[in-house]
Amino acid sequence: MSQPNLQDVDWSLIPAPDDDGAAAHLPGMTLPSLALPATSGETVDLSKLPELTVVFGYPRTGVPGQISPVDDWDMIPGARGCTPQTCSFRDLFAELKAAGAAQVFGLSTQSTDYQREMATRLHLPFPVLSDEALALATAVKLPTMRVADLTLLKRIALIIDSGRIVHVFYPVFPPDRNAGDVLAWLKANQR
């Protein structure tokens, strides 16, 4: 399926994901030490960041005009919406920082090179982390799905404080509202 505009989506036509309980074990978990490559050229170990961190995970970003991994991509609950979700975090980035997020990261199982193209195209003010080797997804049992022989993250947002997950947004729908929900949580739980 060709996706000419990745940001204009009628969410009433897209199936919402169900809460399958796959993230219920995450709140309170201390993250293991893992270095993930970032689009900034650095590696990031989420377990070692001393302050409040927001990480939003998504299945995969598309490239305008390119073919989706499967014809019925939009009908897979939770698949469509990576670009709108990412752009909402971009657009609310300053507000998220003002509300207490020391850092914000995107996260997917795509390669850093693929993510770098997207980060540049979308003018992201934050790095995107690659879990292409599924190290983090496996270590903490992040919710995943298999599509066209790819293991992809299910859409999720984590609030991490000094290496410990303190809040989880899962399932996330519609994706373009996720950053606003995270911002509201940060404002309500300011230290």
Automatic annotation (TrEMBL):
Coiled coil region boundaries: none
Pfam family, one: Redoxin
Transmembrane domains' residue ranges: none
Keyword line: Antioxidant, Disulfide bond, Oxidoreductase, Peroxidase, Redox-active center
Domain Thioredoxin: residue ranges: 25-191
Entry keyword Oxidoreductase: yes
Claim: Disulfide bond is one of the keywords in the record: yes
Gene Ontology molecular function terms on file: thioredoxin-dependent peroxiredoxin activity
Gene3D superfamilies: Glutaredoxin
Domain of life (superkingdom): Bacteria
EC number: 1.11.1.24
Protein name (record): Peroxiredoxin
Source species of the chain: Rhodopseudomonas telluris
Source organism phylogeny: Bacteria, Pseudomonadati, Pseudomonadota, Alphaproteobacteria, Hyphomicrobiales
